[in-house]
Amino acid sequence: MRKVEEYLREEAEAKGCAHLTLLDPDKVDLETFLKLGKLAEEAGSSGIMVGGSLGVTESILDEYVRELKRNVSLPVILFPGSVAGLTRYADAVWFLVVLNSANTYFVVDAQVQAAVLLFKRFRNLEVLPLAYVIVGEGGTVGFVSQARVIPYERADVIVAYALLASYLRFPFLYLEAGSGARSAVPPDIVARCRAVYNGMLIVGGGIRSEETAYKIARAGADLIVTGTVVEQEPDKLRKIIEAAQKGGLERRRAR
């Protein structure tokens, strides 16, 4: 098993539900970026995802990620919004497929380009295959990736995509409500996806409170991702992480 993938599985198993902090170089300057990275590590996050839907280039990523690796010991996982979102200074990259995009570019075409780049220029990066499903409001990423964003009222469709990810044997499935979403993925939908998907289930978007983090972890998430909260309300981060761990451990004990 690959290094970062194994680490994430171990973290989720030990903590019940692990946490990843998402940082967008396009939103903050380098000094703030490094400060937030250190805060995430001190708060108990298991890793840092770096990327954004707009405005991130390889040169910016090189500088930001290189300095981040000098300041924190957590693994850095790239979360690319395009084929430009790669840097050799990271540890791994989410090789994501937007399953519910209406444009094949985000399902397979960009991935073909990225595959060649990863093979020729970025072979040090651990590739983590990720089924990406955009739900709820969808946010900027839903717009940019031309997703047919699935409303929470159509839970059956969301679950069908989770089942597809399982049949295609994606090791990771990410239910994405969108950065800054007003509401996170409902726990009942997380639970239904958990019932049909046997890989690592990731949930992100709209998680801004301890209660929300606890319920999503209790429902079946292996990893939760927060980004906006660490930028706007960093003091909440530790409590959100602890709540997610509590919910995940309770779920495991109840099995």
How would you summarize what this structure contains?
Helix content is 45%, strand content 17%. The chain is an alpha/beta fold. Strand 2, helix 3 and strand 3 (76-78) form a beta-alpha-beta unit.
Major sheet: order of its strands? 1-2-3-4-5-6-7-8
| Count of the domains | 1
- Could you list the spans in which at least 5 consecutive residues all have pLDDT below 50? none
- Per CATH, which architecture? Alpha-Beta Barrel
Report on the structure:
It is globular and about 45 Å long. The protein contains ten helices and eight strands. Helix 2 (30-43) crosses helix 3 (58-71), helix 6 runs parallel beside helix 7 (187-196) and helix 7 (187-196) runs parallel beside helix 8. It is of the alpha/beta class and 255 residues long. 45% of the residues lie in helices and 17% in strands. The two termini are 26 Å apart. The chain has a single domain (3-250), classed as FMN-linked oxidoreductases (TIM Barrel, Alpha-Beta Barrel). The protein has an eight-stranded parallel barrel, surrounded by seven helices. It has helices at residues 3-15, 30-43, 58-71, 109-120, 139-144, 155-167, 187-196, 210-219, 228-232, 237-254; strands spanning 18-23, 47-50, 76-78, 92-98, 126-134, 172-176, 200-204, 223-226.
Outline the fold blueprint.
Blueprint (H helix, E strand, L loop, with lengths): L2 H13 L2 E6 L6 H14 L3 E4 L7 H14 L4 E3 L13 E7 L10 H12 L5 E9 L4 H6 L10 H13 L4 E5 L10 H10 L3 E5 L5 H10 L3 E4 L1 H5 L4 H18 L1
Parallel strand pairs: 1-2, 1-8, 2-3, 3-4, 4-5, 5-6, 6-7, 7-8
